[in-house]
Amino acid sequence: MGSLTIIQGDSEPTVTADEVAAVIRATRVANVRLDEVHAGPLALDGGDLVFGVQAEHPKFAYIEEARQILVRIEHGVRVSAAESTERATEITVAHVISFDLADDLEARPAALAAWVESNVYFLAYPYVRETLTSLTSRMGLPPLILDYLSRDERPFRPAADD
Length: 162
Known about the structure:
Shape: elongated
Radius of gyration: 18 Å
């Protein structure tokens, strides 16, 4: 197993495709798990339901003892009746994706953030879709079906190294 060395002090915000490719080559998916769920209370007054989905900023951390990179991806959903958004049912789900390091890796935080945004998020998206569809159905709501996640429509937001 490899290890990760974070290169600090580089103020260059531009990340190259080669830097992201190096992270991809050095990592292997070890686990994808549902880490946290908050849902409810059901506060719907009838009417057509409106779903609002918000992706939060992804976070990543390196766990040196396990030699793993962990990435946490969180989504929030508000479900309300079409005529009123005052009373809404709140749903939050968070997934953690664990990556083993197959090789030693030296990377800047900006390169790791770009890897999360350009690769890890898309790896996790099918799990997010399934979780939200299943959870809304189990709550007695119409199942929330998320559409395709388009690379062109997803704005780049840097991940935090928390």
